[in-house]
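To: structure desk
From: M.T.
Subject: fold request, one chain
Message: Could you run this one when you get a chance? Sequence is below, nothing fancy, just the single chain.
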Amino acid sequence: MHGLHKRRSEHTVKGWIERYLSEGIAGLVVKTGRGRKPAFFPLSPMEAEQAVEYLLHQSPRQYGIKWTRWRLQDVGRTLRWLDGCTDAGIYKVLKRLGFSRKKALYFIHSPDPKYRTKWEQILRAYQEAVTHPEEVIMLFPDEFTYYRRADIRHSWQRRGRRQHRRQQRAGANTKARITAVLNALTGQVLYRQRHKIGQQKDLMEFYAQIRAAYPQLQRIYLVQDNWPIHKLPAVLQAATDNQLTLCFCRPMPRGSIRLKNCGAGCSRTSCTIII
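Reply: Done. Structure tokens follow.
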């Protein structure tokens, strides 16, 4: 009776009356299979999802399509159960099944023949740091250069000849160099800021600074990239003298360690802080 509370067409009501007169109350029961069919009928949602995923991982040229990437109309022509659907309809079906347009991610595998061995060493070191946090630590180092003064860029302001003024100090806009290590478990950062960090002597001093920051630990794993300075004999010896275990891997993405400036009172020659 719930359907009688809504406005229905004359044809619908006439059909109800005819079924009631011929079959009684049983004729008014909605039968299985009636109603709107799914867009991927007769496939089940899982079967339709698997069919789409398989198709999208194939080249369109295998199906006689000249393009190198799939278009909505090409998907509709290739999958028979989408035949006759508009581009908008195909888009809705793909979205319902969990598919959308996405850009590929650039990925380069290391050509180092010992890549897997090094990676397994890093995983074992990480597991050791997780299991024994009071005795072992894993640190990820990185270095970068920046200008001490920020660039002036455009921003939204009131129109007119008046402009905001950016207060500057006399002198050249010099560069500064930061090297830092990130605790893989806690996110704690230890860094050193100077004019020239990354040279052999400064890096050796930073190794001593790391050991001084964690004097109670039995083992410190330092996961470094393959920058040539990291592998100089004197630098390797400094790591040994400070009881640092080096693990080498591919270069880490820039910006993997984000640092805060310690403020205007920071010395321009040296700055050391644990955040």
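Reply (cont.): The two ends are 69 Å apart (CA to CA). Let me know if you need anything else for the meeting.
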